[in-house]
Specification:
seven-stranded mixed β-sheet, globular, homotetramer, four-stranded antiparallel β-sheet, 13 strands, 8 helices, Rossmann fold
Chain lengths: 285, 285, 285, 285
């Protein structure tokens, strides 16, 4: 028995008949829609949709849905992708020396909170090697310097390909990726930045927050683009602080936000709930 | 030129073809869908939908949409209602002695934040009479006692009918309505309760919160049912407190929550974003 | 009978004996301390204190407390001020065309939520004149242009002096004050900025928030300094938004934050709970 | 060199001279106060204080502070305790089958976020035995039934004594402790309840929250008393939900709250920031 669902994510210029045609396509072939969400952005006259239906009873075999849907998609100039809920995405964790986001993701995966496998941990430092191995993870060390970055990234890409990686998570990874690496994983690299972006971009946000005397700090998870800290934001959250909080205490409070916000963004991505349009996301929660 | 939209709210047993048939109905008659949101409740196998489309270019005149849609609705056993975005709902404010929610709603209406008229203020006390009149509102005094409640409510209903009232807001109104009154305005009476329900139902929630030593207080806006403080919840929000907050300070902090939560619930209702199912709401934000 | 309290705010280099000496000063003269809060900032080696005691039973008449405390203050190189809880501060509201913060403060004052009088409303526009007068407030129009700003500010200062103004609130006042005006009211001008500073400083924060695709917006209340939007932050709060929120809806949600954050900051100031140190505040809540 | 601080927690009937006498006691013996916080509860006329000073330079050896302070304490009828910041408290984790709070605390301890040791894990089930041992923890199984509870608890107490346990954490431990066990660890047993108490006390809070249709869920950490779910609340937090959240998704969201709220409460306890008065806490953050 096939318990899986198909998930269609699409965007196109807004026009009449979009919902009717897409839902009719599913209905006509016997599909039962279990979730549907849409958004029309009036300033840009764009239409976005996420629609999920049961494969059981659906007349088109999953490998043929693509071809069957294409004529409709072409007619409306859609950008689109189809996912299946029983596919287990494969994640590569990029880490440096901070351990909290690493722990959090590993344990959520273990507890079944993340529908994914993590076959691969990559780091520019050796500090967390034994820890990763303690959790049974394959650890690869790429001691990247500015000189050999392109060459080392080429090796990383090879490794990512070998392991069939779908998603890269920068779990407080402290190395800037090259534009060509990023382009290869467009909207498939998720970063956690330890501030409420666009406030305090850059390397020392907690110190900056302390110095500025803000009363709230935050964390931001976003897709990585060539512009550092400027990729489409997926999730943000905040926590209150006061004059009593030293930089050290701000860091501690911030870590909880980082964990939660990164995990939330990863979960949304894994459930195929995110559409990227320009520098922004549409998140169908 | 007709700038208005039609808004269809419906619920029915879940089944295949719902989205397809409803969206096709709109598309076939030339309607452009601007918002659509649906929800399937798996435990109850129920389907809920809010769909909004432009009347401009829609082939069916608005007074005939009802009849045109009925066959489809019947086929799927839908409960449904159609609203038009250019209709200005008429609100009756029920108040007693607290003034903060009254002020808040009056001023939001004045500032254009609420798409509604407020032709009528009803109170069981005279305290706020001059204030209501200062704002140019018609004030009616019903000094209800337990003896004459039914009779006075009959007069209230007459008044509400005369003014074509669509929605009753209990802005900290301190009188219990009779079940028969409530039944007449089913899902059209919104109350604000000054606690995070179901915690601290009843008359003295802030004192109870203080006595219990909770670290967070809240406010809850809900439709009124015959069971006091148990109607379907529309909106809730909370604010942190500490041991430093006296009952008086808790009340002050709570007032801000009450204002915001009541206004949010009223706005959601006026925009026809709420479906009630059993004792719960589906809120299509 | 004297029900008032004295409130002492002080800051000085950290050293031994501060709490002991200050509390002994109060105790020795028969004062009963009802609140005391202190903060030591380790990086700056600074000590901050707010201490409040009942004047009833205190041996020193209030007009002599200053002189009596001075030797102790001098010994520890304190910056300090003494306030009395029965003094009613006098506020001047500066407004332009936005009405929501104006309404909010006026009504809080009316409801007794703010311990202050508002004898004066100043605006660079005439739009809200009749509204201010409807609330019985004296309205003064200063149609400031870049040319005559200094001269008009001189007239404003005269007016503020005449009315014995203690605190200026910029309730969405859309004119930049000159450094000399600001210097005269150092830490006595409170502004509300409609973003979560330091994100989106400047004139169009909601549009910027929309364009950047942030998932949370905020509001910031701060003392005004010569550096626009960079004064010491008093209070901040945030609210979640999503891709569904148009700029218009972001503005609406933001207005609630602005009202609450400005009112909170004003209340903290009126209760003498704020110490400014450099570009930051210590808020003794 | 002695880097530790002494922390004095005290409560007594409010009266003049408390701050002066306590701070003078510290100052007179050469102590440098680094934190001091107090609270006067007016309805109960009670005074609460937390004061922390450096032992370096303090004239009284730490083992004699008790005796030295006693006369002052007696004079003011104080309840009081003294702690030292370099003492590492010892925690026993009580668990059943849920793993998320267990993981969270273990990893925070590992990452240095909790100043404590965890020599002991006790469970009424064997499910998490191998996991606990994987983390190098001593695991003890007490398969408690209603019949032999008292006897088994006697063995637990022996074990807790052997390991010098200061604090018991019920990390989603699903067994009710006897009043005599609780009495022995008065204000030293911290529980996490998976709801925003007093809403949804009892065993199935997430299901209840779903059934009631609340828009916000929460978690509550409290000291355990003989009245189930009614002990003094230490920390609470909440998260928004909507009609889209199934019970399963509510559980998932709730788990993040449970982790954070429990960790926060434990941290506050370990830093000696909590005073219990009746059924409430004073938390000096």
């Amino acid at each position: 028995m096939n318990q899986a669902n198909a998930i269609l994510l699409l965007s196109c210029p807004d026009q009449k008949g979009l919902v009717a045609n897409v839902s009719d396509f599913i209905f006509r072939h016997g599909g039962n829609i279990v979730h549907a969400d849409q958004h029309t952005s009036l300033p840009e006259k764009m239409f976005f949709m996420r629609i999920e239906w049961e494969l059981e009873g659906f007349a088109i075999p999953r490998q043929e849905i693509d071809a069957a849907f294409r004529p409709l998609a072409d007619r409306f100039q859609m950008k689109w992708e189809i996912h299946f809920s029983d596919y287990i995405p494969r994640i590569a964790l990029f880490i440096s020396r901070h351990v909290h986001c690493f722990y959090d993701l590993i344990l959520r995966q273990r507890m079944g909170e993340l529908n994914a496998e993590i076959p691969l941990v990559i780091s520019n430092h050796l500090d967390l090697k034994s820890l990763a191995e303690e959790f049974g993870l394959s650890f690869y060390h790429f001691p990247i310097t500015s000189k050999d970055k392109t060459q080392q990234e080429r090796q990383e890409i090879e490794l990512l390909n070998q392991h069939g990686i779908d998603l890269i998570i920068l779990a407080r990874y402290m190395q800037i990726l090259t534009p060509s690496f990023i382009a290869r994983y467009c909207n498939r690299i998720i970063n956690i930045h330890h501030s409420f972006l666009p406030a305090f971009a850059g390397g020392k946000p907690y110190q900056q927050a302390y110095d500025r005397g803000v009363k709230i700090i935050g964390a931001t998870s976003h897709y990585v683009t060539a512009q550092l800290d400027e990729g489409p934001i997926i999730a943000q959250d905040v926590i209150k602080i006061s004059h009593r909080d030293s930089v050290q205490e701000i860091i501690l409070k911030g870590k909880d936000m980082e964990r939660i916000v990164l995990a939330r963004a990863v979960k949304l991505h894994l459930e195929n709930r995110i559409l990227v349009f320009g520098s922004k996301t549409i998140v169908f929660e």
